[in-house]
Write a structure and sequence with these properties.
By secondary structure, this protein is of the alpha/beta class. The chain folds into 2 domains: 180 residues, LarA, C-terminal domain (2-enoyl-CoA Hydratase, Chain A, domain 1, Alpha-Beta Complex), CATH 3.90.226; 233 residues, LarA, N-terminal domain (Rossmann fold, 3-Layer(aba) Sandwich), CATH 3.40.50.11440. 36% of the residues lie in helices and 25% in strands. The strands form 6 sheets. It has a 6-stranded parallel sheet with strand order 3-19-15-16-17-18. The protein is globular and about 70 Å long.
Length: 428
């Protein structure tokens, strides 16, 4: 019996006797016994700069950019600790604003803010969601050295002290998430999001899962965050079960590099072959919609070396209670997938005319679907799956029947229960 995450629970299944299976999970690392204590210690002894309580001073306008509900970052622990440091420096609560880094996703709901930050923070501090499409709420800061437009929310640019939280884990474009990305993308305007997520970057071989060296996306977010004035980050690394295993705070470059090293040692796992198909687990909160959940097959597809053969299949158990997703980016993703006859048309159109934020997910999935089918199991909106040029299946048994009908009986399966974290690296 095998098990992968599905919604807030899990999905159990067996494989036919003719199918061999390799289960790949991240390495084990002891979780922190007391996360709050570790966070406080990280703030006392930050990397590359003086403690936050010495950086801040009374009267400072402080902005804290936090992750949105699609990231399992423990902001309910991180933000109160930051507020304690600011209070110790004499910063008043009314001079602090929390900015939810939604990027091109929908605005966060009151319930999500409460769940993400906790009642004490929600009652105490002003919380806003930037609008990436409102020109009056955005500031154009020119371009990076590589020509990337820097358009950011005014809500983060009028700060005397700009801080960001984040969770450091493999990311398909940035190499690793967290660090500067919470500000550089989470608080960016659509022009910046569209450019960094466009064909120029996504076709670049340096834009790769698990890679920050020579990665143009990583270089762009680093420069954008510096131009925004990001001075301090508080980030974590969490394991497959969302247990925090490392905390780092301090100057953005210094703290991020240390946490990337910890994340690499946790999530990178060697495999010795190419597989016929893969079963990719996601679970809450990433399987709340197809836009987010579809990252799982694309993460494996864009691994440093392919782990599923061309013509093979990805199986994605994903509940998707929000369908494709409710935000403008998610709706653009669905329209881009639905309104053309084939994945090749998506790629050609994007390379010819560029893409809007959200359409990059269609571009990436089109690359996957050119070589591999994707079967989505248990989606509450199977018609959305069809519109996105993927194959709906009500159960894992049905999905496996499709696999065998298309690929034969004697197959090798790769099972990755946490496909957005575990990074299989094929030994070549």
């Amino acid at each position: 019996m095998y098990r992968v995450p599905y919604g807030r629970g899990s999905l159990s299944f067996d494989l036919p006797s003719t199918i061999g299976a390799t289960v790949v999970e991240s390495r084990r690392m002891a979780p922190l016994a007391d996360v709050s204590k570790a966070v406080k210690q990280a703030l006392v002894d930050p990397m590359g700069c003086e403690p936050l309580r010495l950086m801040a001073k009374p009267g400072d306008r402080v902005k804290i950019v936090v992750t949105d509900s699609t990231r399992a970052c423990p902001d309910s622990v991180l933000v109160p600790a930051l507020l304690d440091e600011l209070s110790a420096a004499g910063v008043r609560d009314e001079d602090v604003t929390i900015v939810v880094g939604i990027g091109a996703h929908r605005a966060s709901t009151p319930e999500e803010k409460l769940g993400k930050l906790g009642e004490g923070v929600v009652r105490r501090i002003r919380i806003i969601d930037p609008d990436p499409r409102d020109p009056d709420a955005l500031v154009n800061l020119g371009k990076t050295a590589a020509g990337v437009p820097i358009v950011l929310s005014r809500s983060v640019l009028d700060a005397d002290l700009l801080i960001a939280t984040g969770i450091v884990e493999p990311h398909q474009y940035a190499g690793y998430s967290g660090g500067r990305k919470t500000v550089a993308i989470g608080a960016a305007g659509e022009e910046t999001i569209a450019y960094t997520h466009g064909p120029r970057f996504l076709d670049d071989p340096g834009t790769r899962l698990g890679r920050i060296e020579g990665n143009p996306f990583h270089e762009a977010v680093t420069e954008i965050a510096a131009r925004a004035g990001l001075m301090f980050i508080l980030n974590v690394v969490a394991d497959d079960d969302n247990r925090v295993v490392a905390v780092g705070a301090g100057e953005p470059n210094a703290a991020f590099r240390v946490l990337v090293d910890r994340a690499r040692s946790l999530f990178t796992v060697a495999v010795d072959r190419v597989f016929d198909f893969a079963i990719t687990g996601v679970g809450f909160p990433k399987d709340v919609n197809l836009y987010q959940a579809s990252r799982a097959p694309s993460y494996l597809f864009f691994a440093p070396e392919p782990v599923v053969r061309p013509g093979g299949i990805f199986i994605l158990p994903a509940q998707c209670p929000e369908g494709a997703g409710a935000g403008p980016g998610e709706q653009r993703f669905l329209a881009a997938m639905r309104d053309v006859p084939s994945p090749r048309h998506i790629l050609d159109e994007a390379r010819r005319n560029g893409i809007a934020p959200g359409e990059q997910r269609a571009f990436v999935m089109a690359k996957v679907l050119e070589q591999n089918d994707v079967i989505v199991v248990g989606c509450e909106f199977p018609e959305v799956v069809r519109q996105a040029k993927m194959i709906p299946a009500a159960t894992m048994e049905e999905a496996l029947e499709i696999v065998q009908a298309r690929l034969g009986a004697n197959l090798e399966a790769l099972i990755v229960p946490h496909a957005l974290l575990t990074l299989p690296v094929r030994q070549v």
